[in-house]
Design brief:
By secondary structure, this protein is of the alpha/beta class. It has 15 helices and 15 strands. Strand 8 and strand 9 form a beta hairpin. It is elongated. The protein starts with 16 loop residues before the first helix and ends with a helix. 36% of the residues are buried.
């Protein structure tokens, strides 16, 4: 199983238990049937996942296909469903008509009937025609990996910006997949006849599907405007941090890799921690201090996954831009996972779409070292020799990680040796906040400080004239 069985939450790393309890109390009730009695309703109702069967097509690497299907099972579990079975078919490419071949599709229909499943989830994106044809064969709802991930995001987003981003992604995905059902979807008595144009000017009028598309496009335009406005506020905050030269560390990584647990240990952030994929979506920013007194921010970002829907990447682009402005990237990798290197590759593929993200200094952090296989750890260290092994539960490697963060953060460039009068405590405080203190002592005439500071602080010291 991709997720651990019966995780025990305790300690600083575990975050807020109230959020976790609230989320678990909203699980879907088993036994509510979603079998298609009226297929016309499938696009217009809220997704309800209960008892599901997973399917996938593999070209040649069955091991990779099995790993991908296990990850899909974890996604389905996170969405609140019960996974009954999984089926893989080896073929050069998915069938353009029914995804599975016609014979395998009939076998799938028999499996659905035998297990009492009410949903089939495909491990790749389905075209509208593939989904429709497969539904006609298996007689239950069919969705794909993208729909499943969008549903999880819709469940877990809490902040206004996150909700707007998820809704926009859902609408972008839904728009080309709307379909009508003959005359019952049309609106007659349209055209120019209502304007008195007479015989021969009658038209079919606007169909319901056209009306739905127009409403969706209008809603998407409104959401894009709102997200742009919220993005401006985020840019203003980033500009303020740059103006104040606040150092920034951004935590990135695969979903469920342990990012929130690590943030809780480093900053006492109380971020929700749950053994589930995409447990936290809304970015969290906390302040931290280096041992020499310099302030920096730690930002937790949305987790990544293989084949992350392009709609989500575009919708969350304003959030991902935090990565490009960072001074250091903490790339958290689940060391207990069967394919940690594959996780690193998946994250880099997403970051490649964010301008400047791959140019930021990166530190690989192998989390969950307390439950990882020693052989797998050795393999990971051989691939990434500068990585740091940590465990948020036991505290292993946390101090070493703090040290590595301090080493990677940019250091002030100007060296000063200054005596500051005791009535200028504001300047002493500024040096402590923005500079790197090497020596400090109290002299009869004031506080003597040997430090490295930024040019603007150096200019303030020169104006004071307090150099010995």
């Amino acid at each position: 199983m991709t997720l651990q069985e019966d995780p025990a939450y305790g300690g600083r790393w575990a975050g807020d238990s109230l959020d976790r309890e609230e989320r678990s109390s909203l699980r879907r009730v088993e036994g509510l049937s979603t079998e298609l009695t009226d297929v016309t309703e499938v696009e217009y109702r809220r997704l309800r996942l209960e008892r599901v069967i997973l399917i996938g097509v593999v070209e040649d690497d069955m091991k990779a296909g099995e790993e991908s299907l296990r990850e899909l099972a974890a996604l389905a579990t996170t969405a609140g469903s019960q996974v009954l079975d999984g089926v893989l078919q080896r073929r050069p490419h998915p069938d353009p008509a029914t995804y599975f071949g016609s014979g395998k599709a009939r076998e799938l229909a028999e499996l659905v009937a035998a297990t009492g499943a009410d949903t089939v989830i495909a491990d790749s994106e389905l075209s509208p025609s593939q989904r429709r044809a497969l539904e006609d064969i298996v007689k239950v709802k069919v969705i794909d990996r993208t729909t499943l991930i969008l549903d999880i995001f819709a469940q877990h987003a809490k902040q206004r910006e996150g909700k707007a981003q998820v809704e926009l992604a859902q609408l972008e995905y839904l728009l080309p997949r709307l379909r009508g059902w003959g005359e019952s979807m049309s609106r007659q008595a349209g055209g120019r006849v209502v304007g008195g144009e007479g015989i021969g000017s009658r038209g079919p009028g606007e169909t319901k599907i056209e009306l739905d598309r127009r409403r969706i496009r209008r809603r998407m335009a409104k959401l894009r405007k709102e997200i742009a406005q919220m993005g401006n506020a985020r840019q203003t905050k980033r500009a303020s941090r740059r103006k104040n030269r606040t150092l920034s560390v951004v935590v990135v990584g695969y979903t469920n890799a342990g990012k929130s647990s690590l943030l809780n240990v480093l900053t006492d952030a109380s971020v929700l921690v749950e053994d589930a994929l995409f447990a936290t979506l809304d970015p969290t920013v906390r302040r931290a201090l280096t041992r020499d007194g310099r302030q920096y921010t730690l930002t937790d970002t949305v987790g990544f996954v293989r084949n992350l829907p392009t709609q989500l990447v575009e919708a969350f682009r304003s959030t991902l831009e935090e990565v490009a402005d960072a001074d250091v990237l903490l790339h958290v990798v689940d060391a207990s996972h069967e394919d940690p290197v594959g996780q690193v590759t998946a994250v880099h593929e997403v970051l490649a779409g964010v301008a400047g993200a791959l140019d930021v200094p990166e530190l690989i952090v192998a989390s969950k070292a307390d439950i990882a296989d020693p052989v797998a750890l050795a393999t990971l260290r051989s691939r990434f020799p500068d990585s740091v092994l940590v465990s948020a539960v036991t505290g292993e490697g946390i101090e070493k990680l703090r040290t590595r963060i301090e080493e990677l953060l940019p250091h002030p460039q100007v060296a000063i040796d200054v005596v500051i009068p005791y009535d200028r405590g504001d300047l002493v405080n500024r040096i402590h906040e923005d500079g790197e203190i090497l020596h400090e002592s109290h002299e009869p005439t004031g506080t003597r400080i040997v430090a490295r500071v930024n040019p603007d602080v150096s200019a303030a010291v020169d104006a004071l004239g307090g150099r010995p």
